[in-house]
Write a structure and sequence with these properties.
Chain lengths: 115, 112
């Protein structure tokens, strides 16, 4: 079964450093997303991306965050200057262009620890 | 705004017990409703869904009825098994799945 792949599975970084979280969405999917889950809390929407641009973003997704699809397969989330409160699981997801198929799939996540 | 409220914390039934995990939603639009399941070290996985009012989602003995009149989507199972243990999230989507609003999650821990 096709899956969304995220790397690394765990990233430790110092406060103030830049991090890039990487995702390989399912190959025929056209819509891409990032979500965040702070330990023990709900999964929160960060951003959606379609046709090489952001289609929607939440208030969490401030100027410190950016997304990019640098090539035909990867989808990245960059945090420019990490803060302690950015520590969380970050989930990438992608979805099928045919909404009736409902192919919305999450990756296994990257645990980001900011120290 | 759009939101979901579900049974908080942990539920500790014994194997063979019946289960109800409550979920209520709030939105001014017409949502699709979902239950996601999350196992340790993994991302959320779709468990069941209902696209419109009076639809019933079903999967692995679990059911949830989309009730517009009570804005609810409670997750039910007649007889839980130890293998059902996981975290369950209720979620809604209102804009053709552009994004999901998740509840806070309910940890189901079934005692053998």
């Amino acid at each position: 079964e096709p899956e969304v792949t995220q790397t690394p599975s765990h990233q430790v970084t110092q406060m103030g450093q830049e991090v890039i979280l990487r995702c390989v969405p399912i190959s025929n999917h056209l819509y891409f997303y990032w979500y965040r889950q702070i330990l023990g809390q709900k999964v929160e929407f960060l951003v959606s991306f379609y046709n090489n641009e952001i289609s929607e973003k939440s208030e969490i997704f401030d100027d410190q965050f950016s997304v990019e699809r640098p090539d035909g397969s990867n989808f990245t989330l960059k945090i420019r200057s990490t803060k302690l409160e950015d520590s969380a699981m970050y989930f990438c997801a992608s979805s099928d262009p045919d909404i009736s198929n409902y192919g919305y799939t999450f990756g296994s996540g990257t645990r980001l620890t900011v120290v | 705004g759009d939101s979901v409220v579900q049974t908080e914390g942990q539920v500790l039934p014994s194997e063979g017990d019946s289960l109800i995990v409550n979920c209520s939603y709030e939105t001014t639009q017409y949502p699709s409703l979902f239950w996601y399941v999350q196992y340790p070290g993994e991302g959320p996985q779709l468990h069941l869904k209902a696209m419109k009012a009076n639809d019933k989602g079903r999967n692995k003995g679990f059911e949830a009825m989309y009730r517009k009149e009570t804005t609810s989507f409670h997750l039910e199972k007649d007889s839980v098994q130890e293998s059902d243990s996981a975290v369950y999230f209720c979620a809604l989507s209102v804009d053709n799945f552009n994004k999901f609003y998740f509840g806070s999650g309910t940890k189901l821990n079934v005692k053998p």
